[in-house]
Structures are given as C-alpha cells and as structure tokens.
Amino acid sequence: MVQRDLETLCDLDRAHLMHPISEFRKHEVKGPRVVVGGEGIWIEMADGRRVIDGFSGLFNINVGHGRHEIAEAVAQQMREVAYYPAFWDFSTESAIRLAERVVNLLPRDRRLNHLLFTSGGSDANEAAFRVARMYQAARGHPQRCKILSRRHAFHGITRAAGSATRIPAYHALASVDPAHIECAAPYCLRCEFDAKPADCELSCVQDVVEVIEREGADTIAAMIVEPVMGTGGIIIPPAHYFGRLQEVCREHEILLIFDEVITGFGRTGCWFGMEHWDARPDIAAFAKGITSGYLPLGGIAVADFVYQTIRDQSPPGLPFMFGLTYNNHPTACAAALANLEIVEREGLVANARVVGEYLRERLSAGLDGHPYVADIRGLGMMIAIECSEPGGLLPVAGRPMAFPAKIASRCYQRDLIVRALWETVALAPPLCTTQCEADRIAEVVIEAFSSEV
Ligand SMILES: Cc1ncc(COP(=O)(O)O)c(C=O)c1O
C-alpha cells in the first residue's frame, strides 16, 4: 500500500472507527495496525511486515488465512441465493446441509439433534437462555428464569450473555442483569478453597450446590459453562468436574448449557470440548471455528427432550417466539460447509491435538524454572502461560496485569501475535500450524520471557 494512502486510512480510522477493547484516547494517538492479507498462519500488515497469527484472530481462524475455496463457496452461494429469512417455513439447502453436518460431528449419543444458526457467539448464548426458559415454562415452571454462570466466565457481550460473563472489567460501566447468578470456577491453580489437586473434593461444585440452595432450584432455568474457560485465562477443569456438575444440574432439573464457542470444531484436539470429559449438555452453543471467521456465524444444538417439550407443551398455536433476521443465513452456512470440509480433509482436529501438545512441551521445557512463570497448561491449540511475581502468585485482579502485556508486546516486535489475558500469556495458533511453525512460535515466546530473568 502506498504510504500516503495508508496515512489517510489511519487518520480516517482514528476519526470514525471505534475498536473493541481499546482505550479511545490512546488509539487516537497511536492509530490502527492495518491488516492487508494473510496466508496460513501468517498475516500481512500494510507496512509489508509479516506476522504469525499465534491467537488465530480471536481463537477462531481455525483453518488459517487465505483459503480460496471458502471464498469460492461463498461467491457461488451468493450467485444462487445470497440471503432469505429462515422465518416460518422458508429454508435453504446450505443451512439444511450444515445442520446435518454439525449434528453428525457432535457425539451422536448426546442427541443434540436440533439446530438453530445465529450470527455469532453472544446471540447463540442469548438463544440458549431463551430456549432454556421456554423449556422450563412449557413444562409448567415459568418462574425458573435465573441463569447460573461462573467467575472468570466469558459468554459474550449482549445483555444476557454479557451478564453471564463474570469478568469484572466488563461490568465496570455496564450493570449486570440480576437474573444472572455467579458460582465458583474450577480454577485449580488459584483454588478458592485452597485445595491442592491431590486432595481436591470439588468444592467448586459444592459451591454451585450452595448457590442453588440459596437461590431456590425452582427459580433457576439453566447453568452455562465453557468446557475450557477461554477469555478468563484458559482454565481447564479437573477430570471429574463435569460429571459431578451435571449430576447436580440433573438432580435440580436445571439445564446444562455448554458454551463451545471457542472449543467447538477442533480447537482442543477433539471436535467438541465436551468429549474430553464425556459431558452431556442439554444445549450446546457454538460460533467462531464453524466458519474460521470467514463469515459471522454461530448457533445452538438442542437436545431432543428440550426440543420436544417446547414442541409438545407450548400453548396451542404459539409458534417458537425467537427470530433473528440472520438465523440460518445461507451464505454464512455455505462458508461453514467449505470450512468444515477443509478441517476434515486435512485432519486438522488431530493436528491441533498433536502440534498443540508439542508446542506446550516446547514451552514447558524452555520456560522451566522461570521466576515469572507459575503454570503452563493447555488442551490442543489453547495454551496458557500463567505468570506470577517471583514472590508468588498475584491475586486475580480481574484487570490486565502489566507483565503478560509486556510479553505480548515483545512477541509482536518479533513478529508473533499472542494475547495477554489477565495473568496469562495465551496462545491459540490456527489448527493447521505445522511442527516447524510451532518451533518458531516457541522460540519467540521463550526469547520474550528470557529478557526478564
Ligand atoms: C466462550 C465464548 N462465548 C461467547 C463468545 C461471544 O461470541 P461473539 O463475540 O461471536 O459474540 C465468545 C467470544 O469470544 C466466547 O469466547
């Protein structure tokens, strides 16, 4: 790009564009980093720099950049029918085929057979909450409307999804809906109950039991959980956590919603995060990896019994009172079909497992004994390096800690994007990352940490 054009673009950005998670005043001074291209795990900046996308955009560019076959599938769909609403009984072939594809990728014994596509993850969770409340009302419990979620959770930013999000910074200037109730999280490194993994009795699940007793089970519609908490810092629950949690939910007739927005479609080395724990959610929400970000799309998969209850027990003549203009969008569904074809053909789920583990091992070996590293953990292509002060763990402040941000900025100077998430440096490269590329990522991260010893 010609330098003068770039300067004009940057001025226009400063004047007119608001950027998520940016400080407006700083942005007006610094201006944007303009991305102009991408191929595989690399992106190209307007100044000609090539940078490794070590966070897959926002945990979502699973197949990597520059996949022309997705562009072709989208163009083809647009030529046929770009869009038509899914309201009433209208449908399109790409939405029907995608629903079937996703149903078959989900573990079949979960019976998550009923799909509704949305525009992204936040509205997928909004849809999940609405369906959960409809289910409870249809079976005669309209007062069951509260939603439980966990500390450090991120479920999106719209009103209900944003209220289920329990990261304090998001609520500093925006109140939480009181129908959303917070429980403990399975954050083993910083266990709220001071348990060590060897003597863990799942006090975090006991906390959910106590919250249910305090609030009254007959006021609660559902509980929402991320299989691996992403934005909260890549927090991985212990082996028996979901088994016990789902027993508690079943016992109290509370629906369990799995937010697979990050973990769905291969990121953790299984098609869905639920598979690692053999968990059985009643509703699963997804987004991001379904299209690898080539077009916006999310959705929910609803268990047979939930769907059938709404179908058979709603007041006679009352239709399913939910509808987004872009539900089941045919062009976004065509992008998803082409994307999933690549994931399957190239074996990217297995690659995420193998290369993710390799990268984690490389980082563990290279950062072993580093005074600022408290923990290195991960599942597939979700990896966290949790930082500490040499004197010990800092308390979770719910706001960015300076050190991980410093590491992220050093990595960027060395042409690698990683993300500072509170106390952690987080990595989530595309699922197509090769072992050789993982070596380069590890090298840059270790180098960035080593200037601190
Ligand atoms: C687990 C989880 N749920 C929901 C969302 C919201 O998705 P979207 O940004 O597409 O609305 C996100 C976004 O990062 C997420 O990580």
Globular, elongated, flat, extended or rod-shaped: what is the shape? globular
Query: Helical segment tally?
Result: 14
Using only C-alpha atoms, the radius of gyration works out to 22 Å
The main β sheet shows up as: 7 strands, mixed
The chain-level structural class is: alpha/beta
Distance between the termini: 40 Å
CATH homologous superfamily title of the largest domain:
Type I PLP-dependent aspartate aminotransferase-like (Major domain)
Q: Strand sequence of the main sheet, in spatial order?
A: 4-10-9-8-7-5-6
Estimate the mean pLDDT confidence. 96
Query: What is the total number of structural domains?
Result: 2
Quick synopsis:
The chain has 2 domains: 33-63 and 347-450, Aspartate Aminotransferase, domain 1 (Alpha-Beta Complex), CATH 3.90.1150; 71-345, 3-Layer(aba) Sandwich (Aspartate Aminotransferase, domain 2). Helices cover 38% and strands 15% of the residues.
